[in-house]
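Regression test case RT-17, inverse folding.

Input:
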């Protein structure tokens, strides 16, 4: 009888301990799954990894100030082709990134982030949601501001660059950028034009 007790009692204790450990572990797994579901919407590890990938697919959001600044820009530049200015900014940005060795550069969307005038120069900042692939194949989603500048008041700027616009007929410098005819020969000249907007800066933000 004693011998039986010596065998059975430890076995029962062992069984109880095993049961307790199983309950603790299964509770832990349940809890972990619940946390995963709350955090990721699923407890499937593969799905969680997939979600991270999708997150990398998601373009960055950009500040949409176009509705505020575009009317101001268009008031100062009635003949400005906004689409063309956007395209010019885009081209500068794509070239900038490709020159850095990035591939598959994709511009998801853009907006006029800011428009301001400072000592005779107008600055239009166009924000872009950008995607590109680094040389190590890693995909990047980011944002860039492309700042385009326009010398509005040549005299205030006081340097030669402001006189780069010339009459296509006689070659005279056109000092008043708002002029539609050449003040020397009277021939029609390009009105306020996209071509005088220049790249000022490209900043990641
Ligand atoms: Zn002329």
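Golden output:
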């Amino acid at each position: 009888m004693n011998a039986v007790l010596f065998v059975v009692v430890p076995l029962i204790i062992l069984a109880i301990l095993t049961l307790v450990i199983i309950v603790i572990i299964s509770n832990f797994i349940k809890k972990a799954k619940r946390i995963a579901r709350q955090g990721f919407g699923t407890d499937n590890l593969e799905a969680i990894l997939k979600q991270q990938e999708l997150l990398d697919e998601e373009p960055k959001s950009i500040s949409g100030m176009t509705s505020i600044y575009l009317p101001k820009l268009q008031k100062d530049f009635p003949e400005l082709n906004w689409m063309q200015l956007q395209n010019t900014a885009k081209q500068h940005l794509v070239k900038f990134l490709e020159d850095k060795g990035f591939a598959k550069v994709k511009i998801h969307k853009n907006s006029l982030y800011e428009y301001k005038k400072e000592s005779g120069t107008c600055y239009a900042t166009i924000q872009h949601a950008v995607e590109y692939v680094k040389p190590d194949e890693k995909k990047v989603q980011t944002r860039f501001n492309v700042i385009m500048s326009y010398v509005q008041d040549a005299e205030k700027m006081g340097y030669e660059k402001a006189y780069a616009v010339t009459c296509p007929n006689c070659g005279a410098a056109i000092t008043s950028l708002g002029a539609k005819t050449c003040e020397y020969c009277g021939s029609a000249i390009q009105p306020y034009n996209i071509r005088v907007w220049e790249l000022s800066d490209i900043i990641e933000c």
